[in-house]
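Form 12-C: Joint structure prediction
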Amino acid sequence: MALPFRSSSRKIWQTLSSIKTGVVLIILVVIFSAAGTVILQRPMTDADDMQRAYSPAMLRFLDVTGLTDIFHTRWFIALLILVSFSIIAASVQRFPNAWRYYARPYKSPDESFRKVLPTQAQVPLANYDEEQGLSAAERALKNLGVPAERIVRSNSFSLFAERNRISEMAVYIVHASLLLIFLGFIVDSVYGWRGFLMLSPGTASNQVELKNGALRTLPFSIRCDGTGEETYTDGSPKRWWSKLAVVDGGHEISRKEIVVNDPLVYRGLRFYQASWGRTGKLDKLIVDATRLNGATRTTQEVSLSMNQTVALDSDTSVQLVDFIPDFVVQDGRVYARSKEVVNPAVHLVVTSQKNNTSVNVWLPEIPGVDENAASSYSFDPKDLKTEVYTGLQVSHEPGQFAVWAGVVLMALGLTFVFYVVHMRFWVVPVVDAQGHSALWIGGTANRNRDAFELKFKKVVEQIQQELKIQVAAPSASTAAIPQRTMSGKTLSGITTAGR
Amino acid sequence: MARERVEQHPATGNTLVVMVGLGIAFLLFIAFLNVVKSGNILSEANLLYAALVFYAGAGALYLGFGVTGTDAYIKFASLMTWAGLLANTGAVAHRWYGAGHPPFASIYEMLLSFVWTLAALTLIAEKRYGVKVIGTVTMPVAIVGVILMQLLPSEVRPLVPALQSTWLHVHVTLAMLAYAACALSFALAMMFLIQDKVKTEVFLAATSVFTVGIYGAILLRFEKWGGLNVIAWDAQNKAEVFISRGVRLFVTIPDLGWLMLLVFAAVLAPLVLYILSRVRKNESLLAIADRAVFLSILLQSLALVFFLLRVRNGQYPSLDADGLYATSLATSPFILSALVGGIFANLLYLLLLWRRQDLERLLPDADALDRITYKTICIAFPLLTLMIAAGAYWANRAWGSYWNWDPKETWAAITWLVYAGYLHMRITRGWRGRRAAYFAILGFAVVMFTFFGVTYLLPGLHAYA
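Section 2 - Result
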């Protein structure tokens, strides 16, 4: 049963390598990608928004078919892999022919080839001999920058000259580069991951929160030594920076100040400055404390951090017990409305050891809550430093180097495909219809034929000049330069006479 | 044919040139008076104004050339284009110097660069490839671009951190070049179809489908009781109003929706008539369709005028918030360009309808156009590839991922695939002529959707452009 299997596998192979299959696959990719931009996608859109946008039955259908996360479903990745196979199959099928063409250039044109070549001309040698004609042609081709080689024929020489043969292989370079990009992409979607790390200055962590909410432990930790924001005069952010240190095995390995667009890289992991903000917690409060009940009104500056107690004099001390970034008062109690530092309040407790009293001081004063009047000190807030954090995007993309290599290769390949022309010239001594000896000159280029024909014309003209042949020869069958031929439709100039 | 035209226009001489010259002299004189008052000659606004004046002159002359075929106009038209390009270059340089970064950061700056590229390409196409009539198409677009710029907020906005990257400039420059090359290939493919004797009514159908698409898209913003939704504008901060992060506040302009619906019906009429004429094989319906096009242009102009007036002035209620809010043309650049684009496409159809024979005489032959179209795409495709690669590299540095499947990225990839398909069909299957031209047009339609449609309809990371 080997034969049916072989024929069916051959059929599959042929289907896969056909350009039709390629086009159908590309159309499918286009349709599904377009669908992915129109249908709301899961991780980016909130679950609530999804429920608002689609009916429950619709949503269930979309979820089951994977249409709510098209670009990560198995069938879409399978489709991309199928495209890769199609590219591979198409390339493998066409490669041997192209390789033969590339590896064994056609140097000695036979008569049937000379008859059908669209771009050709014949220059009569008149009283020159073959050798003089050929060397004139050699000089003309060298002038063009395409040095010719001599090919031995049965009883004489002919010339063959070419440039940029690599251009014939360019399309394989492009396809290979595309496969390289796909490979990198697939490696990244299988082994790559992305997460988020939030650090406040002075803290270190090795716990990265992944997109699905799970935590991933890194084999090393990242410490934040400082972070900040610079703003434009209108308040919009200009620059976010973070000073990071890598701590691996208890040792500090490296330090770097990262900004947006300039990440820290360590052991294949990249740490990007992604966001910056305030945690809503207090870092430091600076107040002027003035003693009210002494003989002299002395004022001192006090710096407080959370829950810290500072002695004001031998008897009195103050403690920072609470910070509310955005406060409201309701039923005689203070509540936090949000974590944004828009309407902050601090709660201090002033304790006197001698009297054994504690007074609740609120800044600013909150009538009905504060006992500021009973305090032996008045406080005047000078500065409020809130805690900031830096948001780091962490990503592991082991395949990205294949992607960049593919991109470079593709740029190279496309340059060859579109701008590097493989041109070939042949010069063969022949005998024309009248029995006079002549030079047959033929040429071909794999693209940009208009420009090539101009070059060809120049070569022929130079040979004619060297052999001192009048260009405007009266008789029909002497010198002739082909008119511009249009993709082989109009074949002008004279065709060769047999030898 | 040539004699006929001479009889039609006995004074083919220099009437138009003189009129345009006088007009420009007058406008420049007025501008000069203003400059004397303000004392600052080389400000960006002045340079832009000069560019506008010269482009308008060039546009008028190119149109005159398109309609009458008088070669004398072309000389002056390209002279005007040169002058406009010079002033435009000055404006770009001024902007670049003043802002400290290349002008690609806002829609205003993108338009500035786009108009510059367009004018430069017009001159290249004219001098290098002899496509003289191209200015008839590109100059009006350039004029619309410069006028749009006057309406958009033009102050230099500081760059947010993610945009501070050399790769941004590389990415955007490549995008501009690639899209311009795609636009050129589209125009050439259209010219090929004209030279390839495609029936005029096919162009009628295409123009109508395009215009119906435009008004269909605008009517997506249709609100109850005939209103039209536009984004609210905070005049003090010169910014769009957001309800919450990423959610814009829409205000409803009363009755404008009804007008748009009416125009939608008007632009639908030629299409319906075309289909009817095909079904019933009745040629006389086509003549009515042509008249309907004429009528629809009038109505479209009316819609444009009302849109401009109502968006520029007035406070409107919103369904999502109490009180009245203002809006601005700056929030609706896409509606505005769609309205102008619709009128423009229909005018081009009329030009074709009335002057087809002249156009056929003026354009290069079909074979040459087919070849140049292919060559233009050979330039566009590597540029598209590099544009996507530069964008991916920048995204990798800014967001930590080179590919996010964000709508703009996805559509850029789709564009790339479509042109890749074109190249495969042309190279391996030998597609030439009409099929290739249709493919090139499809490619440009996808480019336009990526550029405008995605920004307008599909939100994503590409919030800046």
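Section 3 - Comments
The radius of gyration of chain B is 23 Å. Residues 1-12, 460-465 of chain B have pLDDT under 50 and may be disordered.
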